[in-house]
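Thread amino acids onto this structure.
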């Protein structure tokens, strides 16, 4: 367990220990004391794979660790824990997709317990996904030029080349409208068979109604998010078919109200990716998760929210913000860290591919390929995160 991950639990433990001393001296009732027992690892909602423990017959054995008063007897899922001062350790074998871990301590103040639930990614393997946000220009280009094929558009043609070279699968997160001159209702349905023929590697998903305003769903009602989502879905199903439509994994700006998350889950969303990093001193692009979970996600691949049944995934690189060399420098340490090595969540933004765009990047394709080449050379397989469990079989 990293020291940073223990800081909060240790602070609370010391505070509680002080309260216990005061209670012993003053005779205060034990029932009024804060809990002195806490599981430090694994984190509630943690997604665990073979890297986090030892594979045994029919399960994954992990070592649960935490803190409890020194003189207390501690059991974890009914098994006696090993003690080392305030700390306790106990093996637990995960055999189901979701396991509840219960630490119980018994001592002078009576019985206390702490519960966490974790997810076992049973069929995990090194994998990556590639998502592209803010898509609208390529759809307008195809509609206005009336190309014979979707791949007469240079953007889709280049994506196909990357797929043919590396096997990469792409999810294009799209807007309903590009502006006054185009919206999805104007896209023809005559390419439906071509969309279907390429759905094995090319999918379309909801991103937002439009590029502006920024952060459109950060404070929007669930009804607004639902209406925009359904508007995009209706049009994609019309012109590209069910094979191409997929539940979104990235909402524009990665911010929605917690009360809006069920709207997404009801529409099949199982994974939401974000930055989960501090911007201006505040956790941002984090779907309004609390600081504790945001900080955890900043250092881990994924975290399950059992209340809404959605997994949050940490985006590892945003290619348009880095040179090809920086892409590699960013990914290199991640493959060496047990908590970030299994799933590479890669993305970029469409507009930087287009020469008419004010912030056009002439080397944007090289940045994208640098990321794909890096993970491919290290044995990572392309997946869609919404399929199976984070791209692995259920």
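Threaded sequence (394 positions):
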């Amino acid at each position: 367990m990293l020291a940073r991950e223990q800081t909060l639990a240790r602070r609370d433990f010391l505070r509680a220990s002080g309260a216990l001393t005061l209670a012993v001296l003053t005779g205060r009732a034990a029932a009024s004391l804060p809990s002195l027992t806490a599981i430090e690892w694994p984190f509630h909602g943690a997604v665990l794979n073979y890297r986090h423990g030892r594979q045994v017959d029919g399960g994954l054995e992990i070592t649960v660790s935490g803190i409890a008063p020194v003189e207390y007897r501690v059991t974890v899922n009914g098994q006696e824990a090993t003690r080392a001062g305030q700390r306790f350790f106990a093996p637990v074998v995960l055999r189901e997709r979701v396991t509840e871990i219960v630490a119980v301590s018994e001592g002078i103040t009576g019985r206390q317990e702490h519960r966490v639930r974790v997810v076992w990614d049973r069929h995990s393997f090194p994998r990556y996904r590639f998502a592209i946000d803010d898509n609208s220009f390529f759809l307008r280009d195809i509609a206005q030029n009336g190309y014979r094929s979707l791949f007469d558009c240079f953007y889709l043609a280049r994506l196909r080349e990357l797929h043919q070279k590396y096997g990469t699968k792409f999810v294009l997160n799209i807007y309903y409208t590009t502006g006054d001159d185009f919206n999805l209702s104007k896209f023809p349905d005559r390419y439906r068979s071509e969309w279907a023929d390429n759905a094995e590697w090319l999918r379309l998903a909801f991103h937002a109604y439009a590029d502006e305003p920024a952060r459109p769903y950060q404070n929007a009602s669930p009804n607004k998010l639902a209406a925009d989502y359904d508007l995009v879905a209706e049009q994609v199903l019309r012109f590209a078919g069910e094979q191409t439509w997929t539940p979104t994994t990235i909402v524009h700006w990665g911010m929605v109200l917690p009360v809006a998350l069920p709207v997404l889950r009801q529409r099949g969303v199982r994974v939401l990716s974000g930055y989960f990093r501090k911007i201006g001193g505040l956790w941002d692009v984090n779907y309004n998760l609390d600081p504790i979970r945001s900080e955890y996600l900043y250092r881990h691949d994924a975290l399950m929210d059992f209340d809404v049944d959605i997994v949050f995934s940490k985006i590892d690189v945003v290619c348009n913000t880095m040179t090809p060399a920086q892409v590699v420098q960013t990914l290199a340490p991640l493959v060496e860290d047990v908590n970030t090595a299994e799933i590479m969540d890669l993305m970029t933004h469409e507009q930087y591919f287009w020469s008419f765009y004010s912030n056009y990047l002439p080397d944007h394709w090289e940045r994208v390929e640098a990321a794909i080449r890096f993970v491919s050379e290290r044995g990572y397989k392309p997946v869609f995160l919404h399929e199976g469990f984070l791209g692995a079989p259920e």
